[in-house]
Write a structure and sequence with these properties.
By secondary structure, the chain is mostly beta strands. It has a domain of 41 residues. The strands form two sheets. It has a two-stranded antiparallel sheet. The longest helix has 4 residues. It is globular. The N and C termini lie far apart (43 Å).
Length: 66
């Protein structure tokens, strides 16, 4: 049985993120890519640095239902 990747955590201001890194290669596959074509709309929150995660990352939010 393959082991699951370790759950890691990052924080930027009031934003808390749990994430996993599996395998090797560029870290450019995001939830935004995974929901493409689903009809789910995401709001761009800009590029941020996250404590505990190297580099800068584009952040997106799911807007509240209206």
């Amino acid at each position: 049985m393959a082991s699951l990747p370790k759950i890691q955590y990052a924080k930027s201001g009031d934003l808390h993120i749990a994430y996993q890194v599996a395998g090797q290669g560029p870290l450019d596959l995001t939830v935004k890519d995974l929901v493409a074509g689903s009809g789910l709309q995401l709001e761009d929150q800009g590029v941020q640095r996250l404590k505990g995660v190297p580099g800068e990352w584009g952040l997106f939010a799911v807007p509240p239902s209206t």
